[in-house]
Amino acid sequence: MEYFTQQLINGLTLGSIYGLIAIGYTMVYGIIGMINFAHGDIFMVGAFIALIALLLIGASAAMPIVTLIAVLLLVIVIAMVLTAIWGWTIERIAYRPLRTSFRLAPLITAIGMSITLQNFVQLVQGAQVKALPSLTRGAYGLFGSDRFTVRISNIQIIIMALTAVLTIAFAVLISRTSIGRSQRACEQDVKMAALLGVNVDRTISLTFVIGAALAAVGGVMYLLYYGVIDFYIGFNVGIKAFTAAVLGGIGSLPGAVLGGILLGLIETYWSAYFSVEYKDVAAFSILIVTLIFLPSGLLGRPEVEKV
Amino acid sequence: MAEDPKLQPTVEFRPEGAERQDEDRREGLAGEPPRKTEPRSRSAGAILKDSVITALIALALSGPLVGLVMAPGPSKALEIQQRWAPVVLIVALVFVGRLLLNLFVWRKQPQGRSQHRTAAVSPRPSLPAIGTFATPLLLVLSIGLPILVIYGAPDQSRYVLGVGTLILTYVMLGWGLNVVVGLAGLLDLGYVAFYAIGAYSYALISTQLGWSFWICLPLAGLLAAAFGVILGFPVLRLRGDYLAIVTLAFGEIIRLVLLNWTELTNGPAGINQIPRPSFFGLPFTAGPGGFAATFGLPYSTNHRIVFLYYLILALALITSFITVRIRNMPIGRAWEALRYDEIASRSLGINTTNVKLTAFAIGAMFGGFAGSFFATRQGFISPESFNFMESATVLAIVVLGGAGSQLGVAVAAVVMIGGLEALRNLSVLKALFGDNFDPTQYRLLAFGLVMVAIMVWRPRGLIADRRPSVLLRDRKPAGTSGMGAA
After folding, report:
1. In chain A, what residues touch B35 (CB-CB under 8 Å)?
2. pLDDT tens digits, one per residue of B201-253
3. Across A293-302, B113-122, B182-191, which has the greatest mean pLDDT?
4. Is A62 on the interface with B (CB under 8 A)?
5. Cα angle at B317 between B316 and B318, to 5 degrees?
6. Looking at the domain assignment, is residue A268 inside a domain?
7. Per-residue pLDDT for B140 more than 50?
8. Structure confidence at residue A248 as a pLDDT band (50, 70, 90)
9. In a domain, A121, yes or no
10. What are the φ and ψ backbone dihedral angles of B271, each rounded to 5 degrees?
11. Is residue A284 part of a domain?
């Protein structure tokens, strides 16, 4: 039981990271119907920018906790802003000229952008793994027997709390503000939205900006949680996050978070009880099984076939 | 939509049937009301402002990542090292480039942007004329290449033929995937799985059972096709992007199983000492009974290389020949119908599941053939050769070439793979940037950028050749007159 709860906490942490990245996939898909393959690499860029900022500020575990939290928030904001500019630029260069083209064209530019970003970061920052010395080691024992105590670390608390805050903020943004209204309008019917005066170009740009900013937060969390990053992390995490988005029903925002958390749990429990080697196989197999029986994901709207 | 003839999807330029649900959305994006058009003859101040903003964005992008390098310091912990020269260079290049574009290029096209937007919808002149002479030319060139290099540049022949073989492998993979993506319109992001299955089945059968290449080759193809059916059967009910992600997941599953099933596949260490191919039973060895001795030729290591080159050329040509023939068979027509409109083809009695399965199986089979060729050529395979990058490269070749066009795929493979290889040893670049400049570092970066650039330049591929093979010629509505040109 203790072991189970411990894995629950670990799985929720991992799932939070996936969920934040999945939001970016699902938003872009919802509006322009393309798989943004470069999104995983945007996440990687976010993690790199965060690590650079942390090293530049000189954050260390010796700092008092209040300073440390302030530094982390600052780093998150820096990473969000700079990564958002990356997201905006990529949309502008690689996707906007192809928006009305046939569907495979933006997919290929997205893959091209993904290759470009990976190799760019490898070139300028080197191929070695970059490690961040642990910033906070603290953890709380929750309950347990003398054999095994369920523990939750500071980092895990930060990750889950931040995900909760960001998800709520994002939900408010989508449901209450004019930006969110334009987003939803474009998702339902781009042409009608344009006729009614929604600036479609700006809305799509904003979608990429918001998605990239959330992915950057995911990058910061990944960096804090695992402590090591390299230029290739974007691929694996990106595919997982996309899987999460599809699992939850692509196009559905609560679905992305739900799918992320489910995927994190599946992966963690599979590693804990069966085999670590096959955890990705388990995640992908569950994706395939889900899609066969629930073709539009858990919370997705079923597609209406129009003739 | 009907009022605007420019946006009317003609038969020729109608989006793929498998993606029909996206059609409305895309039309919506295209038919946006004209936004505030920027006055193109802008003042010097406006041009300067635009260029400065672009340069600032370039600074924000490159500053932290290029200017601040993380490297292990004396105490092994990461430290930041500053390096601002490349940042200044990038920002200056972007500024000057944008300025020049503003001054000279964008001024000449008064509606540069709106032209750009409709470019994808309005028919671009495709290049059918090139096909009539380029196809025989390429064919003659590819057949004559070994003779040309062996007599023309003997010291380079090994390398040139190696690159030629590599390109032809990708041509074959591209043509195989073309059946799935180009003809049937199904997006397959995990094609490398079938390549891997072909390679591993040849490697395992030949090392474990000692069977010859010529028995293993069809077996590998059949196995790959069987996996195509196994994968296809449950998932082909899915549409568009869901199919894409499932194929991607399948590709990753195959790679991970190959990586972790150590008892069978030897895990990450891979399989080595895979038997090399023989000339229909005659090994390429120096001793008696070898290829050279039997034909009374002086022994040369070139024999095997030339043989491998012609082997993959023959396999690729067979792939293309079969594809072109199948295209005109009922099943090929059904693929085409499916690509244009899935619902309509189902209404007309086409069994869409079977049709899709056939496309999947045939594509997979060609992938399997190419895979066993890869295994016998390399003599060593490991799961790392079959990662997603390979799938992406093959898909990029198909789409960049112009999905559905056989010639386009070949041209794209030559451009992308040949270009990638050419970047390995360009001494010109070294002379330009100094001796520390290592072009191999930049090759994948350039690969990605070229992929984006070609796609933006020609969204329908280098050779867009997707005319329907059968047309109903009479009673043509006025809006579709473009198709008569076929």
Report:
1. 199, 201
2. 998 888 888 788 888 888 999 999 999 898 887 777 776 667 887 888 888 88
3. B182-191
4. no
5. 90
6. no
7. yes
8. confident
9. yes
10. -110, 130
11. no
The predicted-structure confidence for B174-190, as pLDDT tens digits, reads as follows 999 988 888 888 888 88
Task: Using a CB–CB cutoff of 8 Å, tell me whether B66 touches chain A.
Answer: yes
- Written as one string, the DSSP assignment of A235-252 is HHHHHHHHHHHHHH-TT-
Q: Which of A107, A115, A243 sits opposite B249 (nearest CB)?
A: A243
Distance from CA of A119 to the nearest CA of B (A): 5
Q: Which domain holds residue A31?
A: 11-144+151-231
Q: Does B465 touch chain A (CB under 8 A)?
A: no
- Whose tokens are 């699902």? That residue is A26
What ranges in B67-212 are assigned the alpha helix state H?
Answer: 85-100, 112-119, 128-152, 157-178, 192-208
**Residues above pLDDT 70, as percent of chain B:** 76
Q: From the CA of B60, how many Å to the nearest CA of chain A?
A: 7
Helix (H), strand (E) counts: chain A: 11, 4
A46 falls within a domain:
yes
**Mean pLDDT, range B438-457, rounded to an integer:** 81
Contacts of B278 (CB under 8 A, 6+ apart): B212, B213, B284, B291
Comparing B19 with B390, which gets the higher pLDDT? B390
Name the domain count of chain A: 1
Cβ distance of A53 and B64 shorter than 8 Å: yes
Cα gap B139→B141, rounded to integer Å: 5
B442 touches chain A (CB under 8 A): yes
Check CB contact under 8 Å for A192 and B403. no
Cα distance between residue A220 and residue A233, in whole Å: 13
> To the nearest whole angstrom, how far is the Cα of B449 from the nearest Cα of chain A?
6
Kindly tell me the burial class for residue B327, based on how many C-beta atoms sit within 10 Å of its own C-beta (0-12, 13-18, 19 or more).
middle
| Phi-psi sector, B299: left (phi>0), alpha (psi -120 to 50), beta | beta
| CA–CA min distance A143, chain B (Å) | 36
Alpha carbons B302 and B298: distance in angstroms, whole number: 11
Q: What is the pLDDT of residues A34-80, one digit of tens each?
A: 888 899 999 999 999 999 888 888 777 777 778 888 888 899 999 99
CATH 1.10.3470 fits B134-457, yes or no: yes
In DSSP notation, B110-124 reads TTHHHHHHHHTTSPP
| Spatial separation of the C-alpha atoms in residues B412 and B408, rounded to whole Å | 6
Judge whether residue B368 has pLDDT over 60: yes
- Where in the sequence of chain B do the CATH 1.10.3470 domains occur? 134-457
Residue B86 with chain A: CB contacts under 8 Å = 124
- Do residue B64 and residue A115 have CB atoms under 8 angstroms apart? no
Kindly report the pTM of this predicted structure: 0.82
